[in-house]
């Protein structure tokens, strides 16, 4: 599998909320960098973080609006969607994935934390 | 000039705080999309927005950490730095630029507004 296919498989696993399958595609020294917060290092910490993101969602869709491969780098623009209660949280994201030896070794996501937090509050407040 | 050179020239103009030179490089129907907020359309509105960003800064450095060209698309990861008073505001940004007929017709920046606003508050509060 080439870098773009690995990233597509990774995103498909997240959409299935299959954290084990997703984490099987990252390297032992993976660094997962949500730019507003500190890097998350290693598969166990990545799994924990993904579980946290996915926990409130009954359905997950990460729409890849555009994807570019350049050497071992895959860049995409996404709309990450999480069905929470009766609504969808929608987060625009720019993702940068570095692939080494067939595994994702760095995953950097740029997004606006306020856009995420505000929608999460709105969707969970209605419970 | 190819797409990557146009983007580099655009960023160099911003670093010189030469808004007129920067805006000469965008198309009449340019859409400037800071993802946390509504799109800004047209050169006049782009100029006004850039002037707003640049006004508090005595020095501007946009460090391009990585840049990829793919067709008419240029993607970069940047650290946008603004010297304000005694300190530097530093904002990680992912930028997507579409070039048509030698002009920037779409400019989309992904970043965390809270990271920007918090530093701006801190640096201007010391006045």
The value of Rg of chain A in angstroms is: 14 Å
**Oligomeric status:** homodimer
- Across the major sheet of chain A, the strand order is 2-1-6-5-4-3
Biggest sheet features of chain A: 6 strands, mixed
**Percent strand of chain A:** 35-45%
Which word captures the global form of chain A? globular
Tell me the distance between the termini of chain A.
Answer: 43 Å
Q: Which CATH-level-2 architecture of chain A?
A: Roll
How many helices of chain A? 4
Count of extended strands of chain A:
6
Structural description of this entry:
Two copies of one chain form a homodimer. Chain A is 34% helix and 45% strand. By secondary structure, chain A is an alpha+beta fold. Chain A has one domain: Roll (Nuclear Transport Factor 2, Chain: A). Chain A has a six-stranded mixed beta sheet. The radius of gyration of chain A is 14 Å and the shape is globular.
């Amino acid at each position: 599998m080439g870098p773009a296919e690995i990233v597509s498989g990774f995103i498909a696993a997240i959409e299935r909320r299959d954290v084990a399958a997703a984490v099987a595609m990252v390297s032992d020294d993976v660094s997962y960098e949500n730019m507003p917060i500190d890097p998350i290092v290693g598969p166990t910490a990545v799994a924990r973080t993904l579980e946290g993101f996915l926990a409130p969602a009954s359905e997950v869709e990460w729409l890849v609006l555009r994807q570019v491969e350049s050497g071992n780098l895959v860049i995409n623009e996404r709309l990450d969607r999480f069905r929470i209660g009766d609504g969808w949280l929608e987060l625009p994201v720019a993702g940068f994935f570095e692939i080494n030896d067939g595994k994702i070794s760095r995953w950097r996501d740029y997004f606006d934390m306020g856009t995420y937090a505000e929608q999460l509050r709105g969707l969970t407040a209605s419970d």
